[in-house]
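tokens incoming
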């Protein structure tokens, strides 16, 4: 099996456990002539990255499950030949802030930063006693495993929310269909992203553009409950906001809803319409949306009590997702804190 450097950057945890993690097989005829099979406790570094924080990103082979592994191109294979470390310690030690501060100083390049095996003669890590190494490695590995579990919880929750949302909207018996342009006002924004700021400013207002990152603007254009769409992109999902905000020129705000529809219901329903907007978008390089696409979109409209019931259920999923996502953020912050404080 082949450890590709791209898998070190994205796809593998610090501790590689081949009873759970997957590696690609080397095709017949492509086996390198000279290679060293990896052993449990070996480490592998990615030797290059566009980000200095990712140069020498490390994984350690925690459990090979009896499989033969070869490190591929753009990786550096490391082994503790003097048996001074326990399995599981090195991967985290080489992921620590103290180690990466050293790597950033010696990485070479302008657009792509790289290191070679010779660079490691200039680097060091602290080696406590083996019992202490075991405690450190076990704690960080358990946090990593909890992060994996938490990610699985979030993904399953998203799938459940999507399935129940589709069921709720497709099982409406007493609904009629109406075009969005007949029950709401649709308009473009007027703000320029050059006037926005990515950092929160006092007395500035939320600014929505095509990116998911929230920005801030010195003035506001709307003070309403709104469903907001980016006018360009590869996919089209709405955002909901209630209050004062500014909007980019190529974005749309759906406001001033008729009494027959709850704005939050409109937001949840339009979350199911990505395929409609992708299908009707124009342009080849950057798909974009026109005003008439929004005017013509059809909304299934049940009575207000039914809309309230649907919103209550879906909002509960969003609340649960926020709680679980906060949980994973706390775990990731804890891991980064430990990596910055436990290794010197």
């Amino acid at each position: 099996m082949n450890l590709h450097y791209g898998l070190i950057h994205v796809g593998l945890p610090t501790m590689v456990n081949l009873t759970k993690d997957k590696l690609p097989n080397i095709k017949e005829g492509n086996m390198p002539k000279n290679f060293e099979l990896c052993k449990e406790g070996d480490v592998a570094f990615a030797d290059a990255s566009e980000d200095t924080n990712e140069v020498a990103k490390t994984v350690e082979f925690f459990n090979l499950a009896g499989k033969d592994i070869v490190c591929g191109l753009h990786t550096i294979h490391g082994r503790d030949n003097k048996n001074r470390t326990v399995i599981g310690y090195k991967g985290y030690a080489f992921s620590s802030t103290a180690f990466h501060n050293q790597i950033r100083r010696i990485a070479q390049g302008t657009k792509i930063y790289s290191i070679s095996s010779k660079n490691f003669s200039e680097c060091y890590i602290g080696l406590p006693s083996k019992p202490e190494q075991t405690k450190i490695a076990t704690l960080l590995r358990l946090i990593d495993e909890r992060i994996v579990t938490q990610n699985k919880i979030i993904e399953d929750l998203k799938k459940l929310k999507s399935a129940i949302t589709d069921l709720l909207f497709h099982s409406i018996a007493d609904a009629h269909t109406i075009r969005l342009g007949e029950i709401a006002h649709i308009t473009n924004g007027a703000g320029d992203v050059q006037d926005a700021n990515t950092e929160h400013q006092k007395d500035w207002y939320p600014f929505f553009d095509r990116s998911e990152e929230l920005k801030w603007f010195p003035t506001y254009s709307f003070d309403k409950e709104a469903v907001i769409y980016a006018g360009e992109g590869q996919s089209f999902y709405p955002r909901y906001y209630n209050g004062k905000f500014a909007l980019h020129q190529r974005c749309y705000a759906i406001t001033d809803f008729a009494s027959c529809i709850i704005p939050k219901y409109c937001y949840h329903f339009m979350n199911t319409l990505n395929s409609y907007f992708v299908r009707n978008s124009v342009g080849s390089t950057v798909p974009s949306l026109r005003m008439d696409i929004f005017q013509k979109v059809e909304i299934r409209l049940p009575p207000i009590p039914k809309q309230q019931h649907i919103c209550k259920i879906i909002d509960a999923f969003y609340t649960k997702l926020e709680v679980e996502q906060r949980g994973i953020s706390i775990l990731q912050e804890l891991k980064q804190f430990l990596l910055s404080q436990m290794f010197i």
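note: The radius of gyration is 26 Å.
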